[in-house]
């Protein structure tokens, strides 16, 4: 064969190979969430290490819901630059993000990108512990947020590993109507939902103007409370997923509020909680599906979790996972190997950590020798990750309960 002909054929092959990769990527983006049930984990860390993503893959984590806000930056807000006035993606931060995504790509780990901060809505923990509600007061910030997501979608639309854009983590426009109590029944929910979905439509349209394939995930309001599904407004987009978070009863899952007082199942803050009560708390989600003919593959439990030392945590996880599976919902536990707190790092069991752990922690090192997949808190999650949609959940839970500490 003549040399120049070899070059032509090789070039043609490369073009075809690249086209095939992108075509396959688009296909994956379109079909990823159609398969029941995707099971994943949340990572909200400052630094991402390949060994951790490799471990997550080994445990059966099927995707990672990745928050970007704590990534290191020289600007006020990662990637956004300044949440008080968005002017475009920060180029150095964008390079950081793409390098992080390469780690996930090497491990074949799908990623859902979520933002805790947006223009006009800086994360409370990065805002002197004050709620930033400008995004709900001023359309200017909603337009900036839409522009931010459009800009980001342009950069990530051909990234095969990114399977979802989760627009805003735990939105709570209720605080605009009632600063002290954003409980679902304490505010005018129709007004809240009108505000929220005007914003969502704006952002979805902006993303779809440049990316037709990647799923868009919308958290319910009141910090992702499933009860707000009673008022949720579905969008006319078959690649939109609707998400809620499950930490109820909060007096049980929150370490400070519980402080050893409550166990599960049992009476918690005056009410008896068991699997039936948990299911009842989430019934609005199933009603929303039925009313609007939304398939279960369009529902994501974006977060669920509990303080790792809490009494009854294994049974609590068992019951939640069974409910999620029975409904066919995708799920992601919070969290995997968190680098700022140890309270929801289930591989650490239920014991107090030694001083050596915190000494290493100060230098951004984690003593992985302290981690054990056999701790019941983590074993129940690993069993769920590795099981199919199932009739095996109850068996898996019993096995997890039998694992010695």
Structural write-up:
Helices cover 43% and strands 11% of the residues. By secondary structure, it is of the alpha/beta class. The protein has 2 domains: 1-34; 35-346, Glycosidases (TIM Barrel), CATH 3.20.20. The strands form 2 sheets. An 8-stranded parallel beta barrel has the order 1-2-3-4-5-6-9-10. It has a two-stranded antiparallel sheet with strand order 7-8. Helix 3 links the parallel strand 2 (64-67) and strand 3. The chain is globular, with a radius of gyration of 22 Å. The model is unreliable at 2-25 and 399-405 (pLDDT under 50).
Instruction: Report the β-strand fraction as a percent range.
Output: 5-15%
Structural domain tally? 2
Strand order of the largest sheet: 1-2-3-4-5-6-9-10
Annotation field: number of helices: 16
Mean pLDDT: 89
Structural class: alpha/beta
Name the CATH class of the largest domain: Alpha Beta
State the shape: globular
Report the helical percentage: 40-55%
Question: What is the topological layout?
Answer:
Layout (H helix, E strand, L loop, with lengths): L2 H29 L7 E5 L6 H10 L4 E4 L23 H16 L4 E4 L19 H4 L1 H18 L5 E5 L7 H4 L11 H20 L6 E5 L1 H4 L15 E7 L3 H4 L1 H4 L7 E3 L2 E3 L1 H7 L1 H10 L6 E6 L8 H15 L2 E4 L21 H7 L14 H11 L6 H10 L3
Parallel strand pairs: 1-2, 1-10, 2-3, 3-4, 4-5, 5-6, 6-9, 9-10
Antiparallel strand pairs: 7-8
Helix pairs in contact: 5-7, 13-15, 13-16, 15-16
Quick synopsis:
This protein is α/β, with parallel strands linked by helices. Helices cover 43% and strands 11% of the residues.
């Amino acid at each position: 064969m003549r040399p120049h002909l070899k070059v032509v054929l090789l070039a043609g092959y490369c073009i075809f190979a690249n086209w095939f990769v992108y075509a396959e990527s688009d296909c994956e983006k379109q079909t990823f969430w159609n398969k029941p049930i995707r099971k994943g984990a949340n990572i909200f860390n400052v630094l991402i290490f390949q060994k951790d993503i490799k471990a997550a893959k080994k445990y059966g984590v099927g995707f990672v819901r990745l928050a970007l806000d704590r990534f290191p930056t020289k600007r006020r807000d990662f990637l956004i630059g300044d949440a008080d006035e968005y002017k475009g993606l920060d180029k150095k931060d964008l390079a950081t993000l793409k390098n992080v995504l390469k780690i996930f790509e090497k491990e074949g780990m799908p990623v859902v990108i979520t933002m805790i901060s947006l223009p006009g809505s800086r994360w409370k923990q990065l805002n002197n512990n004050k709620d930033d509600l400008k995004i709900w007061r001023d359309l200017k910030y909603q337009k900036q947020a839409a522009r931010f997501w459009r800009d980001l979608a342009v950069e990530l639309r051909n990234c095969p590993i990114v399977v979802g854009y989760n627009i805003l983590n735990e939105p709570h426009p209720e605080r605009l109507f009632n600063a002290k109590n954003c409980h679902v029944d304490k505010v005018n929910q129709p007004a809240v939902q009108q505000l929220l979905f005007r914003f969502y439509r704006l952002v979805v349209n902006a993303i779809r103007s440049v990316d037709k394939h990647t799923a868009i995930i919308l958290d319910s309001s009141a910090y992702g409370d499933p009860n707000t599904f009673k008022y949720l407004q579905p969008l006319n987009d078959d690649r939109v997923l609707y998400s809620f978070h499950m930490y109820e009863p909060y007096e049980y899952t929150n370490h400070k509020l519980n402080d050893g007082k409550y166990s599960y199942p049992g009476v918690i803050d005056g009410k008896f909680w068991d699997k039936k009560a948990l299911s009842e708390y989430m019934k609005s989600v199933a009603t929303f599906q039925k009313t609007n003919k939304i398939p279960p593959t369009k529902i994501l439990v974006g977060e669920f979790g509990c303080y790792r030392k809490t009494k009854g945590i294994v049974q609590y996880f068992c019951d939640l996972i069974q409910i999620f599976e029975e409904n066919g919902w995708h799920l992601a536990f919070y969290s995997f190997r968190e680098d700022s707190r140890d309270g929801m790092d289930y591989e650490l069991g239920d014991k107090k950590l030694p001083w050596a752990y915190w000494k290493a922690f100060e230098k951004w090192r984690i003593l992985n020798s302290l981690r054990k997949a056999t701790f019941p808190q983590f074993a129940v999650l690993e069993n769920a990750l590795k099981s199919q949609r199932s009739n095996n959940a109850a068996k898996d839970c019993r096995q997890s309960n039998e694992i010695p500490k």
